[in-house]
């Protein structure tokens, strides 16, 4: 499936609005190891904003991905508004001056095919942006034993837990976040 599009050929000064319900699995996350498991309820409106097209809307769905601690499936509900600007591909510009086109290339033109905007690709990107860095199957997920890999939610092992404590885990997480922020 090549995706779902909204056609903006009738977009003049008036806003166009769209809404739909995409059944589970419609949004294809490819190799991201994420699955859309709930209906994707979305609405969007399109309006001209100078040379750009402004798309505002909201989406609501449930996705499943691997728990950051135990790797078992974790479900999260994603609900977010979006406010994006797109530019229609200007074929003349691309043909006449490849250099300028490349230097000035707005990746957002990639979502356009003629007057059609790839709404399913946009929704996929927005869902990915909304997924937190760390997703847990349960707030108290015990994770895997760092030594033998046993899932400590469903079993126990005879390894000593000397290198691992939830407290140490959260300290490492804070350290990681600080490093991310300063880089
Ligand atoms: Zn887990
Ligand atoms: Zn173990």
Question: Could you outline the blueprint of secondary structure elements for this entry?
Answer:
Blueprint: E1 5-7, E2 16-22, E3 35-36, E4 40-49, E5 52-66, E6 73-86, H1 91-96, H2 98-103, E7 112-113, E8 116-118, H3 119-130, H4 166-182
Antiparallel strand pairs: 1-8, 2-4, 3-5, 4-5, 5-6, 7-8
The structure holds zinc ion (2 copies).
Q: Can you put this structure into words, describing what you see?
A:
The chain is α+β, with helices and mostly antiparallel strands. The chain has two domains: 5-130, no CATH class; 142-183, no CATH class. Helix content is 22%, strand content 31%. It contains four helices and eight strands; from the N terminus they run ββββββααββαα. The strands form two sheets. Strands 2, 3, 4, 5 and 6 form a five-stranded antiparallel sheet that branches. It has a three-stranded antiparallel sheet with strand order 1-8-7. It binds zinc ion (2 copies). One zinc ion (ZN) binds at residues 67, 69-70, 72, 136-137, 141.
């Amino acid at each position: 499936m090549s995706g779902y599009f909204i056609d903006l050929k009738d977009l003049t000064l008036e806003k166009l609005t769209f809404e739909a319900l995409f059944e589970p699995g419609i949004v294809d996350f490819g190799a991201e190891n994420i699955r859309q498991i709930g209906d994707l309820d979305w609405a969007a409106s399109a309006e001209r904003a100078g040379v750009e097209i402004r798309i505002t809307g909201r989406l609501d769905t449930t996705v499943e991905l691997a728990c950051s601690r135990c790797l078992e499936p974790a479900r999260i509900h994603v609900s977010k508004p979006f406010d994006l600007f797109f530019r229609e591909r200007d074929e003349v510009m691309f043909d006449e001056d490849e250099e300028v086109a490349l230097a000035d290339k707005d990746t957002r033109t990639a979502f356009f095919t003629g007057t059609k905007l790839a709404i399913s690709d946009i929704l996929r990107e927005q869902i990915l942006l909304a997924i937190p860095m760390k997703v847990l199957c349960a707030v108290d997920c015990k994770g895997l034993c760092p030594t033998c890999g046993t899932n400590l939610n469903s079993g126990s092992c005879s390894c000593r837990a000397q290198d691992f404590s939830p407290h140490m885990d959260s300290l490492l997480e804070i350290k990681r976040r600080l490093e991310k922020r300063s880089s």
